[in-house]
């Protein structure tokens, strides 16, 4: 919402209030359209500096948004950690499972191989028990034992050797030593073993253990314990690991007890001890055993293996592998059972290399983090965007207030400029007109006309600038009133007829019969579009033609679709021939930029028109029009075509110097076409010409509509109905245009393009059918174009006809027929050509182009000798009608400017009116108090103390009160007599629009400076007199 200063508001309301009533502000429908009367008191700076409403900020909402971002971030981090933990666990679990499987596999194989070796040692123990102890004498001696164990060593590949120690009690020592021939020695000292309860000297041994011969195995503490455990358990037992003498590898000694008799499985330890006869032992190279095993199972995923003797769990003994196990990332322990009930072993495994990083876990975790980061970024960006939008909205509100203030200032400026320029221009043009009505010589008249034309050019420029300002501000509105499109085309062509005749340019208009006679739309804006387009064409064309055509859009589309291939081919070939082909089948024979109006397309449109009903629209139906304005001018350079519709832009800087103009007309026309739901396009070829086309959407009007009684059928226009005419012209398009205008007068027309064929027709030598004979027999006129087959070639056509008649000696044909009048059609004609035409047999009257019904009717009336009756229609000058309209009328002129009052009074008195003037709205209210003798009032809008709107409203209220009072009192006073016509007379065309004037009770609108035609149009509506004037057909 816009906030204005308090002083401005007070002033605004004071201006609107009058005698307890409130007047609606002008342009209150849209932003920035409040009445600008108060703006004079409220300065522009105060408007711009007015406080801007700001939207309250929401810090809590902002805090919540940032909190949400942090919550998302923390939650995302937690989720990423969980995802990483899950996938990394799965990753490392794979390696752990692999380690477990490999470790257990190695443990099982180690146990298996150790058990095989133990079984072989046990088998040896059984063999010794059987063949050494069970036989007497013994079947096994040292040599046999050594030989056998050596030959079966492959069964014990990891044993360094085996030996048998016999149990010898102390009482038996002496006899044993004598029998063996050596002394029992201690293990470490190699000296005779000290006295003890029993001994276990080695008596049988493998050659690899020959150093153990006669050694008491029970002299070593650990070996003694090992022998005692084996004797009691009856199983193989192992020693703790130790270094082997030869290989320096870690090894263990396996000991089995050899019994002298078979024992039951559940024998007691005492029974086993008594039955023990000796001990069979073997040394295992444990390191080699494990090493060979690991080499057999070597894989890419190598592991490190440690084997421990954990009999003493607090101090495990390393049997294989490195001592340092601290750098292991993860390990697995597999239990080992070597069959020794007194010792425990285990295998610990770890991977040789650390497991690789869990890339999948890192990838998923990174993806989660990226997703969360993206969400946080989006939320943060959304938050920042919202903050920016809020800030932009605040700035926009501020700029909106400034723009509204600037819009009001601009409107006031334009209104002021319009008023301040039009007011003196009204005086200048009015006084010039009054000066021209006095007795002036030829030079003085020329000077006055030049000054008046310059003033009108300035007014046109002002109008264009104001229209552009209205379009830019969106204030332009379109009317929706019935109008005759053909009449507007005729009027526009008439406006430029003088310039085209001076240049020798062919100017023509054509409206398809399928276009409804009455349309509903804005006739003023339609006239403005056509005027701008034709005016541009006239400005930039020196030779050739200007052709205005109006068709239905659906007809154009139908023709284009049916001939697209032929047309494309013709355009492709023709575009390259523009500079070489002399004659073209166009209106004047000159090349054109768009072949839309050439004869091939024009003929298709005519056929399409004949195949369809002329008007198949219902009242209110939408009518899509296609309007084209074709010229053969200088064309538009390709470099300038992109900016041709930009305001105040022309092709180049020399254009305005050479041709004049401001470059604003096309921009306004394009905007107006778009307001009518259409579009404007163009095609242009430099040095060839331009064709501007636009589509407009209007509505079908009522067929019985009569335009304010001014468009009533002129009796002169109906006098030619039923006549027959022959048109002779070598240009197909031009002949159809001539036929179109003659048919508008009700004349039946036939067209011939070849002179010889026309001569044969007129002489009756072409074997005409009966109907055509009747037509030719009643022929009223023959119309020949001056340039029918070339420059001035049509003038000599009657001579060709006369020569042909003499040669064929046809004399009787014309005796029984009324000879038709030969009439010449010309764009321009010189006096010698006019004399030559009369000598050839043409009537004196030449129909000058552009063709239009009123001009043709007047010319045909004179040419056919239909009489010189006084013509009260559209053919006489407006001054006569205005004089009859205003003669004897009492007119009140209200204006605060003395010059304007003089100009208005002079213009009205010129036509016989009695004029009284006053300088304010209050004075006008006083003079128009009923009863009064004024027939009409011209009221200025902008006046001090009380403007024209307020004064008119007061006058209407006074009339209403007076009417009600008289009606109640006598009932004799009619409402019509109490309503005085009030016409707005203003130079402010921005705010004082016709709609605003009508809302205030005014009957019409005249903009300053007003002209004779405009004055008549307004007055004729209220005074109910014959229709308005138009320029004389014979001027």
Automatic annotation (TrEMBL):
Xref: Pfam families: CHASE, HATPase_c, HisKA, Receiver_CRE1, Response_reg
SUPFAM superfamilies reported for this sequence: ATPase domain of HSP90 chaperone/DNA topoisomerase II/histidine kinase (SSF55874), CheY-like (SSF52172), Homodimeric domain of signal transducing histidine kinase (SSF47384)
Keywords associated with the record: Kinase, Membrane, Phosphoprotein, Transferase, Transmembrane, Transmembrane helix
PROSITE patterns the record matches: CHASE, HIS_KIN, RESPONSE_REGULATORY
Transmembrane region(s): 68-87, 357-380
GO MF, one annotated term: phosphorelay sensor kinase activity
Signal peptide as annotated in the record: none
Catalysed reaction, written as an equation: ATP + protein L-histidine = ADP + protein N-phospho-L-histidine
Domain named Histidine kinase: residues: 416-700
Matching SMART domains: CHASE, HATPase_c, HisKA, REC
Subcellular location field: Endomembrane system
Residue numbers of 4-aspartylphosphate PTMs: 785, 940
Main localization of the protein described in the UniProt heading: membrane
Domain Response regulatory: 724-864, 890-1023
Enzyme Commission number(s): 2.7.13.3
Protein's membrane topology: Multi-pass membrane protein
Gene Ontology cellular component list: endomembrane system; nucleus
UniProt xrefs under InterPro entries: 2C_system_His_kinase (IPR050956), CHASE_dom (IPR006189), CHASE_sf (IPR042240), CheY-like_superfamily (IPR011006), HATPase_C_sf (IPR036890), HATPase_dom (IPR003594), His_kinase_dom (IPR005467), HisK_dim/P_dom (IPR003661)
Class in the EC hierarchy, top level: transferase
Name of the protein this chain belongs to: histidine kinase
Annotated organism of origin: Ceratopteris richardii (Triangle waterfern)
Source organism phylogeny: Eukaryota, Viridiplantae, Streptophyta, Embryophyta, Tracheophyta
């Amino acid at each position: 919402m816009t906030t204005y200063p308090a002083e401005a508001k007070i002033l605004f309301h004071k201006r609107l209030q009058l005698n307890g009533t409130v007047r609606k502000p002008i342009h209150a429908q849209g932003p920035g359209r409040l009445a600008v009367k108060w703006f004079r008191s409220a300065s522009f700076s105060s408007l711009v500096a007015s406080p801007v409403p700001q939207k309250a900020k929401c810090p809590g909402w902002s805090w919540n948004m940032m909190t949400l971002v942090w919550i998302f971030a923390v939650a995302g981090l937690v989720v990423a950690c969980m995802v990483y933990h899950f996938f990394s666990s799965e990753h490392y679990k794979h390696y752990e499972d692999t380690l477990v499987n490999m470790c257990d596999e190695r443990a099982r194989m180690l146990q298996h191989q150790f058990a095989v070796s133990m079984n072989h040692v046990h088998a040896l123990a059984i063999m010794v028990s059987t063949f050494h102890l069970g036989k007497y004498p013994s079947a096994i001696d040292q040599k046999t034992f050594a030989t056998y164990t050596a030959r079966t060593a492959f069964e014990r590949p990891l044993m360094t050797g085996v030996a048998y120690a016999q149990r010898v009690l102390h009482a038996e020592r002496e006899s044993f030593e004598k029998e063996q021939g050596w002394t029992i020695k201690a293990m470490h000292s190699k000296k005779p073993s000290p006295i003890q309860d029993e001994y276990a000297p080695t008596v049988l041994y493998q050659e690899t253990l020959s150093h153990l011969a006669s050694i008491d195995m029970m002299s070593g503490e650990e070996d003694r314990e090992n022998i005692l455990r084996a004797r009691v358990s009856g199983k193989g037992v192992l020693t703790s690991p130790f270094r082997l003498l030869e290989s320096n590898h870690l090894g263990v000694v396996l000991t089995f007890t050899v019994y002298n008799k078979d024992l039951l499985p559940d024998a007691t330890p005492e029974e086993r001890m008594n039955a023990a006869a000796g001990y069979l032992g073997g040394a295992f190279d444990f390191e080699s055993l494990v090493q060979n095993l690991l080499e057999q199972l070597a894989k890419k995923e190598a592991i490190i293996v440690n084997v421990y003797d954990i009999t003493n769990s607090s101090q495990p003994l390393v049997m294989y592998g490195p001592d340092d196990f601290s750098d292991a990332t993860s390990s697995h322990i597999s239990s080992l059972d070597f069959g020794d009930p007194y010792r425990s072993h285990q295998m610990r495994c770890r991977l040789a290399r650390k497991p690789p990083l869990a890339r999948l876990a890192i990838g998923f975790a990174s993806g989660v983090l990226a997703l969360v980061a993206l969400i946080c970024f989006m939320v943060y960006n959304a938050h920042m965007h919202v903050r920016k939008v809020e800030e932009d909205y605040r700035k926009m509100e501020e700029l909106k207030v400034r723009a509204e203030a600037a819009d009001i200032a601009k409107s006031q400026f334009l209104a002021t400029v319009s008023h301040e320029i039009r007011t003196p221009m009204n005086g200048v043009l009015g006084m010039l007109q009054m000066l021209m009505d006095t007795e002036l010589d030829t030079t003085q008249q020329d000077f006055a006309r030049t000054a008046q034309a310059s003033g009108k050019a300035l007014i046109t420029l002002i109008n264009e600038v104001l229209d552009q300002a209205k379009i830019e501000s969106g204030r332009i509105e379109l009317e929706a009133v019935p109008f005759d499109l053909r009449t507007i085309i005729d009027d526009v062509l008439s406006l430029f007829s003088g310039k085209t005749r001076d240049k020798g340019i062919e100017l023509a208009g054509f409206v398809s019969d399928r276009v409804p006679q009455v349309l509903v739309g804005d006739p003023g804006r339609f006239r403005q579009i056509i005027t701008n387009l034709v005016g541009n064409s006239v400005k930039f064309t020196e030779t050739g033609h200007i052709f205005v055509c109006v068709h239905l859009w659906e007809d154009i589309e139908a023709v284009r679709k049916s001939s697209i291939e032929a047309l494309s081919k013709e355009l492709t070939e023709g575009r390259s021939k523009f500079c070489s082909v002399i004659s073209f089948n166009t209106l004047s024979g000159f090349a054109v930029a768009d072949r839309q109006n050439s004869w091939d397309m024009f003929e298709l449109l005519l056929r399409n028109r004949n195949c369809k009903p002329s008007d198949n629209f219902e009242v209110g139906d939408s009518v899509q029009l296609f309007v084209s304005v074709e010229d053969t001018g200088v064309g538009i350079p390709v470099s300038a075509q992109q900016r041709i519709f930009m305001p105040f832009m022309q092709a180049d800087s020399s254009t305005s110097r050479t041709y004049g103009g401001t470059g604003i007309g096309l921009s306004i026309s394009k905007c107006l076409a778009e307001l009518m739901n259409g579009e404007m396009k163009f095609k242009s070829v430099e040095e060839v010409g331009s064709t501007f086309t636009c589509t407009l959407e209007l509505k079908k009007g009522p067929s019985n509509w009569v335009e304010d009684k001014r468009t009533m059928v002129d009796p002169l226009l109906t006098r030619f109905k039923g006549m027959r005419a022959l048109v002779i012209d070598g240009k197909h398009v031009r002949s159809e245009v001539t036929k179109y205008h003659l048919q508008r007068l009700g004349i039946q027309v036939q067209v011939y393009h070849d002179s010889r064929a026309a001569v044969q027709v007129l002489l009756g030598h072409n074997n005409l059918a009966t109907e055509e004979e009747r037509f030719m027999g009643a022929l009223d006129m023959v119309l020949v174009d001056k340039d029918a087959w070339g420059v001035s070639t049509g003038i000599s056509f009657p001579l060709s006809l006369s020569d042909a008649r003499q040669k064929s000696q046809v004399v009787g044909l014309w005796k029984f027929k009324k000879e038709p009048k030969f009439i010449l059609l010309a764009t321009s004609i010189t006096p010698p050509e006019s004399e030559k035409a009369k000598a050839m047999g043409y009537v004196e009257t030449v129909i000058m182009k552009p063709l239009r019904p009123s001009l043709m009717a007047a010319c045909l009336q004179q040419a056919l000798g239909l009489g010189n009756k006084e013509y009260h229609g559209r053919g006489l000058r407006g001054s006569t009608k205005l004089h009859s309209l205003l003669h004897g009328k009492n007119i009140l002129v209200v204006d605060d400017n003395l010059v304007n009052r003089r100009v208005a009074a002079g213009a009205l008195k010129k036509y016989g009116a009695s004029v009284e003037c006053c300088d304010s709205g209050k004075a006008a209210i006083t003079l128009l108090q009923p009863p009064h003798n004024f027939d009409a009032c011209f009221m200025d809008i902008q006046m001090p103390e009380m403007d024209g709107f307020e004064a008119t409203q007061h006058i209407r209220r006074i009339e209403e009160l007076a009417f009600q009072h008289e009606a109640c009192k006598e009932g004799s006073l009619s409402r019509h007599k109490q309503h005085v016509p009030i016409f707005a007379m203003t130079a402010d065309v921005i705010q004082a629009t016709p709609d605003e004037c009508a809302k205030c009770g005014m009957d019409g609108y005249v903009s300053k400076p007003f002209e004779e035609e405009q004055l008549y149009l307004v007055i004729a509506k209220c005074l109910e007199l014959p229709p308005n004037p138009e320029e004389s057909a014979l001027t």
